[in-house]
Write a structure and sequence with these properties.
Blueprint: H1 4-7, H2 27-33, E1 41-45, H3 51-64, E2 73-77, H4 80-94, H5 96-101, E3 103-106, H6 107-117, E4 129-130, H7 133-153, H8 160-172, H9 177-194, H10 198-224, E5 227-228, H11 230-243, E6 253-256, H12 264-273, E7 280-284, H13 300-307, E8 312-316, E9 318-323, H14 324-334, E10 346-349, E11 356-362, H15 363-381, E12 391-395, H16 401-410, E13 415-418, H17 427-440, H18 445-451, H19 461-474, H20 478-487, H21 496-516, H22 521-532, H23 534-539, H24 544-560, H25 577-583, H26 591-595, H27 600-609, H28 619-622, E14 626-630, E15 639-644, H29 660-671, E16 674-688, E17 691-694, H30 699-707, H31 721-731, H32 738-752, H33 784-789, H34 832-836, H35 839-846, H36 857-860, E18 907-908, E19 915-916
Parallel strand pairs: 1-7, 1-8, 2-3, 2-6, 4-5, 6-7, 9-10, 11-16, 12-14, 12-15, 13-14, 15-16
Antiparallel strand pairs: 16-17, 18-19
Length: 931
């Protein structure tokens, strides 16, 4: 038990207040925190409902209210970043000392630690290396080469990536190579019984047989290299806990975050850890389950209820992130999911501007408008209260980022693309870590392959072939061969091979000597740089200064790493040795296993190897750059303004996705990243693989609009004083000064609209940097009603030879209510667009038919719900909702006059061989109350 004397050590007098951790919790949160620890609990927490706060408060309550010792608690997160955040929050409640005693980290990290300590139980070596994804792919490719011809002779072509995916999925389901083959044969036998297509099943059998052989050969390679891949950490973790259940007896309560993302093996791990106590708390949201392609199993919630029959559920439905209008639209999307657990979200921030749904003629117009008509406009219209870092463009695929990066760059707006790259993926970081891996584990051949000739040592293919041949002959690793050659135990002591490998081996041996004396990871890196002259190697690279900065950052990380406190934030995920020794006092236990202290070098390598967090940059960078990310990468994040482009069939849902409900949940996750403003756009045609394809709005939205056409608006809307006040209140910022807004809007209009009168109420006319040099164009801002009805915009006719600004006499008066209706060019009957697109394609576009050139839409067109008109409204603010639900329509007024485009002349930008063209729209108006 955690006694009162220990409780008194918590920092600060406020820590002595009874149940202080229950402060500022709502009723449902408080109920979840105080739930009896011996009754399994599922906390189903919607986005923005404060789940991390509840989880940390529950840990505090288990310690302060129920007397559990901190080292008897295990908290599992899905990312190291989440573990670090939880650790910071928990330390504010129970103090840093007690927080450090809580075992906290990812499933992979927890298993890695137990496998290090208890490796011999399942026949592993303590110094195994965690093989990263790149090295894993290389190994599988090598193993697959042997069998590729066998499949091709049978008329089967399967990519290495597909083989790797099948193997990973098999491991995530807990299947060995033999189990996988047995399962596959059972499936094909079932198919044969129900189908007469015997040749087809024979091909399937061939694929499964080859994949099983590749799987087994891959495992043999891993074991020969004394390494495990990420999936192995979990599989061997389950095997370890199955063989020796006493290993997890220390745990009296396990808490698992993001439970909806667990796979079958992770569920088994949770069961094993909870075997003795049966005390489990999970936090998850089935509506945010978006990793089925990574073998996440949404059925684990129901499996838990069967495995732990007393399980209770508590719903967290109070959303503290988004406005009511955003929640209304988001809930309407996710409610389409079949067999969904019924739950809702209640708003904290009433009203708010409605989500905007806009339609464009093509992807170029879409990206140009998003940058100039949304991002730049909002920064000006809010008087600078919104900053570049407050905007996020969320994409279904990374490949769609290029036009947005280009459009932002053309406007001088900084951006960053969250592609999911890790710091540890950078070449110079991988090089240095590979040196250290060989120091710790000479059997790890991928590290040898990487750095045997970095920096260059004149070791060519002939010398390497000789090393690999000796390794095969002697049944040892290439590094061990190199050491034997250097020592004169293998080959001719005077051979050229010995002379070439000697310098390399000396570096490794010297680093190993220092490591055995307890040298820190940072000191070893410095020694490696000096011994290998790696800095000189970097200076030969064109971007060597950036690379050298990464090296310095790696040294800084290594210096901050505290191996003696494995559960600290620098280690992220380790389990304390003292904890294991105290927790596993059982008869017959081998103390040497429980008390083995991990060398500093090995602990550092492991922390680098199992890192699963993509870089997010420093906090101050967020205020300076527009964010571009995939919808998957955005999970767990939030921004004041979220823009989701390309909301079309073939994007949402993705063409090859076989789980439409998961695609809907992904869109729901993307929408709920928005705090204040949400924009969704789509285009009628999009350039794909060099050809235009006709596109149609996603069924996910057309169904929503059919059921409730007032959830979205086609209007940009205007900020009233109350809107700015709500925005400032939600973001914790000052309401902008009226004159500052006027100044920024005047500057914005002057920059974006050459034909503007300068009035800040005029909507901008942007300039597309991506249109052809001699193109005249006008952008149609099409109502959501037209989007649902499927009406395409008409294109203006214009002379190709004209590429100059309008004369003053032809410029429309934007103060006139009819200006936007009378601005089309009249001088030609054939547009450039019509000349570029064949007549047959034009006919197809006008008829709203799908393109036949490699388009996936025809196969799914029947699933699209029938169109329903969407009411146009000039009231874009959703009124506060009453009751518990956040869904429902809002009041609307009379529709405005339809908006079309104002023509401006083409103007070539300096230094660019592109034309700049205007895109005006009168519907976006300035904050209310301004003259």
């Amino acid at each position: 038990m955690f006694h009162a004397r220990q409780l008194s050590k918590l920092a600060g007098p406020r820590r002595m207040m009874a149940h202080y951790y229950l402060e500022n919790l709502n009723e449902a949160q408080r109920k979840a925190v105080r739930h009896p620890p011996n009754v399994p609990l599922q906390i189903l927490a919607g986005p923005g409902s404060g789940k991390t706060k509840v989880l940390t408060s529950r840990i505090a309550h288990l310690i302060m209210g129920h007397g559990l010792s901190p080292h008897e608690i295990c908290a599992v997160t899905f990312t190291n970043k989440a573990a670090a955040e939880m650790r910071v929050r928990l330390s504010r409640l129970i103090g840093e000392d007690n927080t450090s005693k809580v075992t906290m980290g990812t499933f992979h990290a927890l298993c890695a630690r137990f496998l290090r300590v208890h490796a011999s139980v399942i026949g592993l070596e303590h110094n195994f290396t965690v093989c990263d994804a790149d090295e894993s792919k290389k190994m599988i490719k090598t193993c697959y080469e042997t069998y590729k011809d066998v499949l091709e002779d049978s008329g089967i072509v399967i990519a290495e990536a597909a083989v790797a995916s099948i193997i990973s999925k098999a491991k995530a389901e807990g299947h060995s190579a033999a189990d996988f083959l047995k399962k596959c044969r059972h499936i094909t036998q079932s198919i044969r019984k129900s189908s007469s297509n015997a040749p087809g099943t024979r091909k399937i059998d061939n694929i499964h047989a080859v994949v099983a052989k590749v799987y087994q050969k891959y495992q043999d390679h891993l074991r020969a290299a004394n390494s495990l891949d990420f999936d192995d950490l979990l599989m061997y973790g389950v095997e370890l806990l199955s063989r020796d259940p006493t290993i997890s007896e220390w745990c009296r309560h396990i808490l698992v975050d993001e439970f909806q993302d667990t796979n079958d093996v992770q569920f088994k791990l949770m069961q094993h850890i909870a075997t003795s106590s049966r005390c489990v708390t999970i936090v998850g949201d089935p509506d945010q389950s978006i990793y089925g392609w990574r073998s996440a199993n949404t059925e684990n919630l129901s499996k838990m209820q069967k495995a732990f029959p007393l399980t209770r559920q508590i719903f967290l439905e109070q959303n503290y992130r988004s406005t009511a209008s955003i929640l209304n639209a988001s809930m309407a999307i996710v409610e389409q999911v079949e067999d969904r657990i019924p739950k809702t979200l209640r708003h904290t921030h009433a009203g708010g501007l409605k989500p905007v749904l806009q339609r464009f003629y093509d992807g170029r117009e879409e990206s140009a408008f998003i940058v100039r008509g949304i991002i730049k406009k909002l920064v000006a219209a809010t008087g600078g209260m919104l900053r570049w870092g407050d905007f996020a463009i969320l994409l279904r695929f990374n490949a769609y980022s290029r036009p947005f990066e280009s459009a932002l760059q053309s406007q001088g707006i900084p951006c960053r693309v969250l592609r999911g790259y890790k710091f540890s993926d950078r070449a110079e970081v991988k090089d240095i870590v590979a040196y250290l891996q060989l120091v710790d584990n000479p059997k790890y051949s991928p590290a040898f392959d990487r750095i045997i000739n970095i920096p260059r040592r004149g070791i060519g293919n002939k010398a390497l072939s000789e090393i690999y041949a000796l390794a095969t002959q002697e049944k040892i690793s290439p590094m061990e061969v190199a050491e034997c050659v250097h020592a004169g135990h293998v080959g001719d002591p005077k051979s050229a091979l010995r002379q070439k490998v000697t310098s390399f081996v000396k570096i490794i041996l010297e680093l190993r000597r220092q490591a055995n004396k307890g040298a820190s990871a940072s000191d070893l890196i410095r020694s490696m740089l000096e011994l290998s002259d790696y800095g000189k190697h970097l200076r030969s690279q064109p971007d060597w200064e950036d690379r050298w900065e990464n090296v310095q950052e790696l040294i800084s990380f290594a210096a901050e790493f505290q191996p003696e406190s494995p559960t600290s934030s620098s280690d992220l995920t380790q389990t304390k040795e003292s904890h294991l020794k105290e927790a596993r006092q059982v008869p017959g236990e081998k103390d040497s296993l429980a008390s083995t202290e991990e060398p500093p070098l090995r602990a550092f390598i492991q922390a680098m190897g199992i890192s699963n967090d993509a870089e997010s940059g420093d906090d101050d960078i967020r205020d300076q750059k527009v964010n571009i990310a995939t919808c998957h990468a955005a999970k767990g994040l939030e921004w004041p303004v979220v823009i989701i482009p390309a909301m079309e069939e073939g994007t949402f849902p993705a063409p090859h996705s076989d789980d439409r409900d998961e695609e809907r949940r992904l869109l729901y996750v993307a929408c709920t990243r928005a705090q204040c403003l949400l924009y969704v756009t789509h285009a009628d045609r999009r350039m794909i693989a060099g050809k235009y394809q006709t596109k149609r709005m996603s069924r996910f939205l057309s169904t929503v609009l059919e059921n409730d056409p007032e959830l979205f608006t086609d209007e940009q809307g205007r900020f009233l004083g109350s809107d700015l006040e709500q925005l400032a209140q939600m973001l914790g910022r000052e309401v902008p000064d009226k004159h500052e807004i006027e100044r920024r809007m005047a500057a914005y209009n002057a920059a974006m609209e050459p034909c503007s009168t300068g009035d800040h109420q005029d909507f901008f006319a942007g300039r597309s940097s991506e249109l052809p040099l001699n193109a005249w164009t006008s952008t149609e801002f099409i109502s959501a009603k037209a989007s649902v009805e499927g009406r395409l915009p008409t294109r203006p006719s214009h002379p190709q030879q004209n590429s100059r600004p309008l004369s003053p006499s032809r410029r429309p008066n934007l103060d006139s209510s009819s200006a936007l209706l009378t601005s089309r060019p009249q001088s030609s009957t054939t547009s450039q667009f019509q000349q570029e697109v064949p007549p047959s394609a034009m006919k197809a576009i006008r008829k709203e038919t799908f393109s036949s050139s490699g388009n996936a839409e025809p196969a799914i067109a029947k699933e699209i719900p029938p169109a329903m008109p969407l009411a146009t409204t000039n009231q874009t603010r959703a009124p506060p909702r009453t009751g518990s639900s956040a869904a429902g329509p809002s009041a609307h007024g009379k529709p405005n006059a339809p908006s079309t485009a104002t023509l401006t002349g083409g103007k070539r930008r300096l230094g660019m061989s592109r034309t700049a063209v205007g895109y005006p729209n009168k519907k976006f108006k300035p904050p209310g109350g301004l003259p």
